[in-house]
Amino acid sequence: MSGTASRLRSHRLEVAWGAFATANFAVLVWLFNYQTVPFHFVWVSLTLLYGARVWGPKVTLLVLSCVCLASTLTLGYAVYNGGTSIDELTEIPLMSAMFLATVWYARRRESALGAAGRAAERERDFVRDASHQLKTPIAVARGLAELLRDTEGAPDRRLDLADLVDELDRLGSVAEQMLLLEVAEQPNSLISQDVDVEDLVVSAVRRWSYGASRSWRIAVQAEGTIAGDRQRLDSALDSILENAVQATYERDAIDVATTIVGKDVVVRVTDTGCGIPPALLPRVFDRFTRGDVRKEGTGLGLAIARAIIEAHGGKVAAYSQLGRGTSIVMSLPGVRPPAAAGLGPAAGSTLAR
Question: pLDDT, tens digit, for every residue of 44-84?
């Protein structure tokens, strides 16, 4: 019984249309004054329904045959009783042709979307496999370059080999981040658990404040937990903080603040760095977008952050003024209040390094 109820819920549009079509055919039989208006309602609604639910060929043929038969019987009954002209019967093949045109268009569109989806999946598989396969040869090449650097006698050759090691490190970082980005875009790869908002943010700032000499300020006004993948969320926040560090210099300020807006936790990372050019701002979350080529980086950090945040059902946006700084704002849904009062948030604390 529960299986039947489940199937009805999954096909409630079809069930509703069936009731609507039956009612209109009944009106056509019982109330001749309406003439063929109910008949047209049935065919137009069928066309709209098929646009929303593209059925397989067998189901489509069955539905079309049933509607044609019902239309012929009800219109024939109306003609027999003098409710309409026999010429109205010619509209049945016309309505059928209109419906078949919709079927042709909808199936072509579905086929095109399927092909595009398969192409995108092949591209993701290629990038994921290529990134994975590149990691080993890059590591081997880096080891050989380090060996040559340490054994080579000429200073110029050592400098060249040191540059080679740096470039291999950069290439390895790109491969690692590409792999992370491809995995991050798959919501079904998330390992969900309760993530404490305050611990997530404070831990990330603490990690970065040790290695980056900036004026770090943190204001946590959001307490509670969200359901999410802690490792991925750490990566997303690290990518945003890394972007802030790359855009600033020593003694510049980086502020991290959290608030609750409705049922979302909002994390805002604001820096007083170089800012993002207006022409670049709409593309700042695209892959390989870099605002300042003089800075280190792969241009994948913010793309990774967006992929992870959107996989959690959240949103991220960037606001910037050139020469004055940038704010990256991410929101994550489903925040739950803490079960019991803790020691309180780290509101207004400062971490200067």
Answer: 899 888 888 888 888 889 999 999 998 888 888 877 777 67
The single-letter code of the amino acid at 45 is S
Distance, in Å, from the CA atom of 316 to the CA atom of 306, rounded to the nearest integer, reads: 6
| HSE (side-chain half, CA atoms, 13 Å) at 61 | 3
**Element containing residue 283 per DSSP (H, E):** none
H helices of 185-331, where? 197-211, 230-246, 301-311
9, 17, 288, 297 from 3: Cα distances, Å: 10, 21, 49, 54
**Whats the size of the chain, residue-wise?**
353
The alpha carbon dihedral of 205, 206, 209, 214 has a sign of positive
Q: What is the largest CA-CA distance in the chain?
A: 108
Residue 37 neighbours by CB distance under 10 Å: 12
Q: Which token pair is 130?
A: 């290529």
**What 3-state class would DSSP assign to 260?**
strand
Mode of pairing for the β-strands spanning 349-352 and 225-228: unpaired
How far is the C-alpha of 3 from the C-alpha of 319, rounded, in Å? 50
**Amino acid 186: pLDDT:** 63
- pTM of the model as a whole: 0.54
297 — alpha (psi -120 to 50), left (phi > 0) or beta? Answer: left
Q: Tell me the percentage of the chain whose pLDDT exceeds 90.
A: 23
CA atoms within 13 A on the CB side of 72: 8
264-271 vs 315-321, strand pairing mode: unpaired
Q: E-strand spans in the chain? A: 193-196, 215-220, 225-228, 253-261, 264-271, 315-321, 325-333, 349-352
**pLDDT score at 32:** 58
Are 316 and 329 in contact, with CB atoms under 8 Å apart? yes
Exposed/middle/buried for residue 158 (C-beta within 10 Å: 0-12, 13-18, 19+): middle
Partners of residue 195 on adjacent β-strands: 226
Domains of the chain: 1-184 (no CATH), 190-352 (3.30.565.10)
Please tell me the distance from the alpha carbon of residue 155 to that of residue 336, in angstroms, as a whole number.
Answer: 60
